[in-house]
Amino acid sequence: MSAVLRGPVPAQGESGFTATAFNRRTLAFVIAAFVLVVAASEALAQIRTTGGSRGIVDALIKWTPLLLFGPPGEFGGFFLNIVVSFLAMAIGTVAGLTLGLGQISLHAPVRRVSWAVTQLFRNSPWLVLLFFVMLLMPYQVTVGGVTIPLPDWLKATFGLSLPIMANMAEIVRGAVNSIPTSQWECAESLAFTRMQTLWRIILPQCVKRMVPPWMNWYAILTMATPLISIVGVNDAMTLAQDALAAEQKTELLMPMYGMLLVFFFLYCYPIARWTIYLERKYAVKI
Amino acid sequence: MESLWDALRSLHDAQGINLVQFYNDFERSRLLRGMWTTVQLAVICIGFSVVIGIVGAWLQGSRHRLLRAVVQGYIQFFRNTPPLVQMYFFYFALGPQMPRIVNEYGIAQPMLGSFEWAVISLSFFAGAFNVEIFRSGIEAVQKSTVEAADSLCFNRLQTYRYVVLPLALRFCLPALNNNLVNLAKTTTQAYAIAVPETLYVASQIWSDHINVLEMMITLLTFYLVLVGVIVWLMTRLERALAVPGFGR
Amino acid sequence: MPSTTASAKPPIAHGWTPDQPIISIRDVHKSFGEVEVLKGVTLDVRKGEVVCIIGPSGSGKSTLLRCINALVPIDKGSIKVEGQEVHDPALDKLALRKKVGMVFQSYNLFPHKTALENIMMAPLLVLKRPKNDVEAQALRLMKKVRLGGKENAYPGELSGGQQQRVAIARSLAMNPDVMLFDEVTAALDPETVKEVLVTIRELAEEGMTCILVTHEMGFAREVGDHIYFTDRGVIVEHGPPATFFSEASDPRTREFLSQIL
Fold it and tell me: What interface predicted TM-score (ipTM) does this complex get?
């Protein structure tokens, strides 16, 4: 099992294959589909309720600010999803870089431990890791007499950064291994230390290779952020459910969930296109 | 077995390490049922998503632009939206639109339960990735090989079934492997619509017995084994399909 | 062998008799985007004849072969195989391709099937012939191309020349009336070229109608009944090998021959 778990960098997103040519029609199609869904549910609404079709659009407009920015004076909504994604990505990237370099360490125990940690967090379900952190991390930490509270959203951010860390470590390891050995030998012959070689020669060459998969993982992370609603954080998903509970209208279900899907689509689709663009651009040059 | 359970029981008394999910018959059977549900969910979704991938990739080669646009729209939508929201959309928004059926006790119930909706939503989610994976595999099949099939009078379906697909499958196994592992991990999110799978059952057990750490380690071990089994099976498939002198 | 199974063929098109050209090409034009590859090609092939098409790369030779097999549509003109218009939209392409076998420069064997399976696939799937028959014929064909014993080898385990001979056998298994060879030795090592040419020569001697696009001038001279020289999409000159190689009149032909020979 150990051998197989060490597979290539996962191609959950684009990294494995080149996608079809840029297609503005796809975007148009998805938006059209959404409009269709809303229209269909309006038609349903007209049949079922006396409220008429205005009701749905009005309700969606009414709840949109809440879904986007959370309750007034509080921190939440889609904005929180984005903040969590940024933070988790930042933490995951730094930790993953460390872990990835740990995997190519000359010190065998460091290498083995880094490898085991990477495999553990790469192959565990995100939701399980999220529960793991939510339930086992304290609600506050005391460092040198100063008590720092750890709100749920921050704990959730740590939870989401764990799989990112492990996958980043794989990306780093893969990129470093893809640099020809001759580069190491050449640097060594010029009397660079190992650290100098790594930071001045090898890693700069890796950046281009790492950017597309890194962005791909960012998109995956963003799409995983609604998971934090399960553990009770006020993200867009939680608020959408609150809004639906407040309205108590079944005809609002599809448009509301549809709207949430569109929020994420509008944010993630451009990232996906950009990733493919960069992947192609860098693929030619390297 | 009984002696092992007794040993675990005394471990709880002596050390406070509570492995109630093993030594208690009720909790053990509940956990095993949850694991079995996860396995079923994973296997059924893998099956459906692979079928969606194969059919979708075939449709992408269609001459009808509209058909291609629909497949492309499906892929892009499911790849670029959160799987959890997709699942909620299916279960909470589409679910109530489905006709209700009357069960044997005379009570009206939804035609599809949460397990079925989890299967549908996860299959479509992973299927969208599979379409792209199979398509890239198909693109890797040399055009000249397809031309040879043409010149031997194979029709489009025969060419796809006997030449393109067997070769494409071999090209795309590594990417497929990754996606299926990912699918198996994503089954945990069925927790959110109360499918009694492993995570759901585990959360019940740790709520009842406050043994979060022990349950977490059990959970992580279970999923590592599940992923390991899938990877092992895929590696065996890869070996079984290996053709001398083809690929590497 | 082709003649013995000719009765199993679909009925011959209306009005065609075996004394007429089996392939008749008239003023064929074909462009890929801006580039006109064929600019009015006309030629006839009679039954049992071996026609060699020679000429510089990019002169449209391979495209012409692909047009005959309806792998590539033409823009203008007519191609008739046994009196049947190839580019008639109503034509059953499968019926045509059953009459015309094609061998490619890059062999194009199916890499996931053994040599024998490669030969058997089309007769089983397309012609729906009984498996015993097909297998017996495939084994015969393997012997015929001197590959007896290699039946269970995968293409990846065979040399280029061996793969190409399997490809020839694979085409023959469909009992075609005409064989098209598209630079079949161009991708081969010099040592293995000979074994493939031997196979083709035997076919020609048995009376198979063949069209060869080739760079092997010596071979063209030896087995060809008629040589066509193409350049930039037109047939510059043609004639029987005896006169063609010694008395070529067009300067383009002479220049080409002087470079090759």
Answer: 0.86
